[in-house]
Every structure is written in structure tokens, then in C-alpha cells.
Amino acid sequence: MTYEFTPIGAISSPYREKFATPRQPGLTKAAVARIVLSEEVSSPETVRELEGFSHIWLLFLFDKNYQQGWTPTVRPPRLGGNKRVGVFASRSPFRPNPIGLSPVKLLAIEQQDGRITLKVQGADLIDGTPILDIKPYIAYSDAIADAVSGFADKAPSLLPVEFSAAALEQVAGFVGQTPELEELVRETLALDPRPAYQREAGDEREYGVLLDRYNVRWRVVSEVIEVLDISLVEKS
């Protein structure tokens, strides 16, 4: 049997590409995103009383992986990208049904250009990701104090982030347009977005990532993230 779903909206996120998008929600507080509801569901009635909840669940489609299929086992980055586990023991986007689930903090409910928009914090979604559903987070039932998290039982370790003099000057120049830029860069890069197989000692190659409207160039030296350059680019 086949079921068909229509997205209820899409997210506008500072993460423009898969690389450097956090692998779990809630890891970057400066990552503020907006969910723009589609015309069919964009009504004050559909969000009535939602402002009483501090957090919401987002059910979304891994649309960038939709056509790539899936395999019974995957190699989670948490295990160094070498050990395989069952797809259902992972949060890999390559799934039989490519559906994701993330809790985010609800900051505001706004109306822009005739559309209802939800301003949220901590989303781990790429810009443009289709949203399938929104549900309120219920603290007494959704937060499980004695839960066990298998091989992902601890939060990821963070690397220190340092800015070059040039990068600090560039951040200062953009502060009027994007006040949270420095914090966004710090929080995102501290998670070390590099693939597990590229984290070997001595890797000092230069990387680039598109955050919001900015191209950020960086490298890792002696387990320290060095931000080299930040430049403004046109939003695609």
C-alpha cells in the first residue's frame, strides 16, 4: 500500500548545504530558522494555543537523499565512520522512508507576507527542507529521564575555535546585518564538520562552508579550528 503526503511548509535555515549542518538538533543556539507554512495550512486557527509550548517537534523529509535509496546497515560518524550498525539503530538520512524528527525551541509565531511563520532555535535542517508535520513537545511524556542512548550516550566533544585577525575584522563588518554571525560560526565549527575519515592527525587542509549568506574558510591545526576568512555571498 502506498501513502501520499504533502508538505505543510518548508524551513528557512542558515545551513545551506549538508556539510557542517549539525547532525543532531539543539547543538547550535545561534542557528535561528523560520518555518513558513504553506498556503493550505497557513491560518491563525492551525497554530491556536501553540504559543503556550516552549518546544515543538518537526517531522520533515530528507529531500536531498530521497532518490539515493537505503541499505540495511550504515556507518555512523559517531563510531568513526568505520563500524556498521543497523539503519534503525541510527539517525542516518538514508532510510526506507526518508523522514526525520527533531525537537526545536519555539521562539515566536509571526505573520509575514500573509503567511504564518514559526521562528525556531536549534534546528538541524538544511535550508528548504520540506516540513511534513508539527507537534507540540510534551515535557512529562517526551522527556525520559532514565533513557539509554547506546553508542550515542554522550554529547559530541567540541573543538576550540579561534578567529584570525582578518576574520574578526570581517565579522565586525557584518555585525549590523547578522549580529549572531560569530556565535553561529563558533557553534557550528566547534562540532568539527569534517567527515570522520578526514580527522586524522596532521590534516591541515582548508575547508569551506556556506553559513547563511557567508562563505567561511577554516582549517584544523593541533585540534583547534582556525577561522581564516569570512566573505558575503549572494543567497541562492
TrEMBL record:
Superkingdom classification of source: Bacteria
A Pfam family reported for this protein in Swiss-Prot or TrEMBL: TrmO_C
GO biological process: methylation
Keyword ATP-binding: no
MF terms in GO: methyltransferase activity
Keywords from the named record: Methyltransferase, S-adenosyl-L-methionine, Transferase
Keyword Transferase (UniProt): yes
Family classification: Belongs to the tRNA methyltransferase O family.
Protein name: tRNA-Thr(GGU) m(6)t(6)A37 methyltransferase TsaA
Lineage, opening ranks: Bacteria, Pseudomonadati, Thermodesulfobacteriota, Desulfuromonadia, Desulfuromonadales
